[in-house]
Design brief:
By secondary structure, this protein is of the alpha/beta class. The chain is about 45% helix and about 15% strand.
Length: about 260
Amino acid sequence: MTYKTILTERRGDVLVITLNRPERLNAASPATFDEIRAALADLGGARAVLVTGAGRAFCSGADLAGGSLTSADPAQATFDALTNSYNPTMIAIAELPVPIVAAVRGPAAGIGCSLALACDFVVGCDTAYFLEAFANIGLVPDGGASWMLPRLIGKARAMEMALLGERIPAEKALAWGLIHKFVADDALDAEAFALAERLAAGPTRALALARRAINAALESDYPAALAREASDQREAARGPDAAEGARAFLEKRKPVFSGK
């Protein structure tokens, strides 16, 4: 499929999605998120996803120059964009049947920050920063940020990001537990892809069940989490990868998972 604002590439078992508006620091229009969602719906057998941005930015936020500010009712246009494009894409990421990694260079701001943080792993480099700039323009965090931030970094730091609207450099984001890894700029692409490739070589079915269980556990009590684990363990144990894992353990070798 041909896209206008993103690029897609299969590199082995990894689907690489690149936001491709470098001249706009990859500012994301609703159409961009529609294209991301379409790409995620067409994995074509990929066993992991890597999301990155072309040029010197991951995503500078929503494309405010893309039409919403010039509409007759900007507030309603923003609501419609969130309801019809941005939010469905965030849900698609949460329900993805494979792991997803974000490689962040430069700004991950506004909806771009939400996009990065919705991924299972975020690798940031020394030029990367995370920014909830909404308070600076009289708006509120969106794209799931109000749900994700306190769960990732606690209420106090979530309030700091949401109410002060200041940049959080990648090194600080790592110390806060906001992201997975901090690397040098020239190492970002290789490090992020190596992580995606490692995940793609894993037991895909089990990884999907694990990410679903962790997301669900954020909203469930302890007994419910235990019950889900038991059910998921039964499902995973019936798959070929579990049998391969057991054989490899007994044979003292590295397992070769099929993703089934």
